[in-house]
Automatic annotation (TrEMBL), chain A:
Listed PANTHER family: 3-ISOPROPYLMALATE DEHYDRATASE SMALL SUBUNIT, 3-ISOPROPYLMALATE DEHYDRATASE SMALL SUBUNIT 2-RELATED-RELATED
UniProt keyword Coiled coil present: no
Record gene name: leuD
HAMAP family: LeuD_type2
Record key words, sorted: Amino-acid biosynthesis, Branched-chain amino acid biosynthesis, Leucine biosynthesis, Lyase
Record carries keyword Lyase: yes
Catalytic activity: (2R,3S)-3-isopropylmalate = (2S)-2-isopropylmalate
Pfam families (alphabetical): Aconitase_C
Domain Aconitase A/isopropylmalate dehydratase small subunit swivel: 51-100
Record's protein name: 3-isopropylmalate dehydratase small subunit
NCBIfam families associated with the record: LEUD_arch
Primary role: Catalyzes the isomerization between 2-isopropylmalate and 3-isopropylmalate, via the formation of 2-isopropylmaleate.
Organism listed in the record: Candidatus Amunia macphersoniae
UniProtKB/TrEMBL annotation, chain B:
Residues of the Aconitase/3-isopropylmalate dehydratase large subunit alpha/beta/alpha domain: 25-230, 278-402
Protein family membership: Belongs to the aconitase/IPM isomerase family. LeuC type 2 subfamily.
Cofactor-binding details, from the entry: Binds 1 [4Fe-4S] cluster per subunit.
Job description of the protein: Catalyzes the isomerization between 2-isopropylmalate and 3-isopropylmalate, via the formation of 2-isopropylmaleate.
UniProt-listed Enzyme Commission number(s): 4.2.1.33
Name of this protein: 3-isopropylmalate dehydratase large subunit
Residues annotated to bind [4Fe-4S] cluster: 291, 351, 354
Gene: leuC
Subunit structure as annotated in this protein's UniProt entry: Heterodimer of LeuC and LeuD.
InterPro entries per record: Acnase/IPM_dHydase_lsu_aba_1/3, Acoase/IPM_deHydtase_lsu_aba, Aconitase_4Fe-4S_BS, Aconitase_4Fe-4S_dom, HAcnase/IPMdehydase_lsu_prok, Homoacnase/IPMdehydase_lsu, IPM_dehydratase_rel_enz
Organism from which the protein derives: Candidatus Amunia macphersoniae
GO molecular function (one): metal ion binding
Keywords annotated in UniProt: 4Fe-4S, Amino-acid biosynthesis, Branched-chain amino acid biosynthesis, Iron, Iron-sulfur, Leucine biosynthesis, Lyase, Metal-binding
Length: 166, 411
């Protein structure tokens, strides 16, 4: 169970990790700057187990992987959004940050609500309400189970993904 | 049989593929730049494998070049060390990655290219399936030479009508972005076609393909024709791709006959208006450059508008040719002299102020006209600055007048 941090529509990777703060690959430094301008209370207040809830097209814009890395490093267990931008969703899965597409949860949950997510089924639970989000694709599950894309391809090669549905 | 993207991927795999298929495909060339390369290198190192093929790797210093801070210098140092250790010789510090990939022939018709940068869609303009990914994906490509794709559905944009100067591909791209929204082509290939695109130069088509990224597109493609083949060399043994009895998920018809100069207002690039809606708004900074509009044609447009004028004293104007080749050619033609004499600041080729790290970072309350592709809050500096996106003609006319100006009312 964690706290919901609710953001709006079109939160870009520029908002998650402004270009002036990502001249590093150090996850801790990135986590400190996460959402520093869009949601200045986030980095100091976030606790492991919390969940980001957002509107449409979360993670749009730049391909910078510093954005999902910074979120993962804060201890956020998943980002739930009405929809995700393509590159962000792919990056998040690759580095082990679960993303759940769930427009109903995105519309109903308010900032500070307590939230729980089931990463296998994509179900989001908050205040006794259940929202059926999209379950992760077969391919996303394989990557997550291996601990990330690097680990999956390192251990099993591309054959591991050849038959999976994205 | 298929759309342009299905044809390109199918040709390379030697079997037909359809939208929705998941495929593992070879990558002709992968690149990363000074901000995304360090994370890609870390992912590559965790693969514990040799570099698949140094010749298929390109590393570009463009986002903070030359380094503006110690942190940036350290990133550069790390990339150079990696390149030396792994015999990567395709190292460039002479312009924006997307321009280099085209100029140097790493992106070619019928090819498959992946870049650790979202605007890697750009080379679709010459009929190459190119897309942006994150650093981890690119790190894995460095080790294996391959990646996975879900073959995308295609949104065909059929453009008709005469595009009258000073309108350009940028106005068309902004107009389409405004109509379909920043996620209007999410996960899709945007296929640009129609008589208007057929008449466009390669530079203009690259601008269209570039901005497919801002519609959420996985790639932005133009058909390969004589114009393409004059400026590029196809890959040996790979067929020139063309759509064959394509099935499009959606088709958008755009008639540009009466199109007005377009402007994207804050807070996002899909907030697009006719210029008349905001003409006269005072502007503190004009930035002309970027992977969308820093090409030779764009330098010519700016020189034409600035010739015989000085930029408005309240409007600092920063011009960044997108590559060394563009810079030197514009010098040779006298355009840079014209631009400098008009009082604009000409910076070395690279991303310049586009992402708020150097060369014209903006303060709270300031308004900017930029020819780039992004205007998110904080993109160019303070999150309380306002960024307006336009064509180079609008930007240059604005630089002279000091306020947002319809170039048709300038000279
Ligand atoms: S010019 Fe701007 S949009 Fe283009 S690659 Fe550079 S930072 Fe990205």
């Amino acid at each position: 169970m964690g706290r919901a941090w609710v953001l709006g529509d079109g939160v870009s990777t520029d908002a998650v990790m402004p270009g002036r703060f990502n001249l590093t690959t150090d996850p801790k430094t990135l986590a400190h700057a996460c959402l520093c301008e869009a949601r200045p209370d986030f980095a100091a207040g976030v606790q492991p187990g919390d969940v980001i809830i957002a509107g449409r097209n979360f993670g749009c814009g730049s391909s910078r992987e510093h954005a999902p890395v910074s979120i993962r490093e804060t201890g956020v267990v998943a980002v739930v959004a009405a929809s995700f931008a393509r590159i962000f969703a792919r990056n998040a899965v690759n580095i082990g940050l679960p993303v759940i597409r769930c427009p109903a949860a995105a519309a109903a949950i308010v900032d500070g609500d307590s939230v729980e997510v089931d990463l296998r089924t994509g179900t989001v639970i908050s205040g006794g309400r259940r929202f059926d989000g999209e379950a992760p694709s077969q391919l996303a599950v394989r990557i997550a189970d291996a601990g990330g894309l690097v680990e999956l391809i390192h251990d099993s090669g591309w054959a591991a993904l050849e038959e999976s549905r994205a | 049989m298929g759309t342009l993207v299905e044809e390109i991927i199918g040709n390379r795999l030697g079997r037909s593929v359809s939208a929705g298929d998941t495929v593992v495909a070879p990558v002709d060339c992968a690149f990363a730049h000074d901000v995304t390369a360090p994370l890609a290198i870390e992912a590559f190192e965790r693969m514990e494998m040799p570099l698949h093929d140094p010749q298929r790797v390109v590393l570009v210093f463009d986002h903070v070049m030359p380094a503006a801070t110690v942190a940036a210098a350290e990133l550069h140092q790390r990339i150079r060390r990696f390149a030396a250790d792994h015999q990567v010789r395709n190292l460039f510090a002479e312009g924006i990655c997307h321009i280099i990939m085209v100029e140097r022939g790493y992106a070619r018709p019928g090819g498959i290219v992946v870049g650790a940068d979202s605007h890697s869609t750009t080379y679709g303009g010459l009929g190459c399936f190119s897309t942006g990914m994150g650093s981890t994906d690119v790190g894995v490509i460095l080790a294996t030479g391959r990646t996975w794709f879900r073959v995308p559905q295609t949104l065909r944009v059929e453009v008709t009508g005469e595009l009258r100067a000073p309108l350009t591909a940028k106005d068309v791209a902004l107009h389409v972005l405004g109509s379909i929204g920043g996620d209007g082509a999410d996960y899709m290939a945007v296929e640009w076609g129609g008589e208007t695109v057929a008449r466009m130069t390669l530079d203009q088509r690259l601008t269209l393909a570039n901005m497919a990224a801002d519609m959420g597109g996985k790639t932005g493609l133009c058909e390969v024709d004589e114009t393409t083949l004059e400026g590029t060399t196809p890959i040996d043994g790979v067929p020139i791709p063309q759509p064959r009895s394509p099935r499009y998920a959606d088709t958008l018809h755009v008639d540009v006959t009466h199109l007005q100069p377009q402007i994207a207002m804050p807070p996002a690039a899909d907030n697009v208006h006719d210029i008349a809606d905001v003409a006269g708004t005072p502007i503190d900074e004009v930035y002309i450059g970027s992977c969308t509009n820093g090409r030779l044609e764009d330098m010519e447009v700016i020189a034409r508008y600035l010739s015989g004028h000085t930029v408005h004293p309240n409007t600092r104007t920063v011009v960044v040719p997108a590559s060394r080749r563009i810079y030197t050619e514009a010098l040779r033609r006298g355009w840079i002299e014209t631009i400098v004499e008009a009082g604009a600041l000409v910076m070395n080729p690279g991303c310049g102020p586009c992402l708020g790290r150097q060369h014209g970072v903006v303060a709270a309350g300031e308004r900017v006209v930029s020819t780039s592709n992004r205007n998110y809050p904080g993109r160019m500096g303070s999150p309380h600055a306002e960024i307006y996106l336009t064509s180079p003609a609008v930007a240059a006319a604005t630089a002279v007048a000091g306020c947002i100006t319809d170039p048709r009312s300038a000279r």
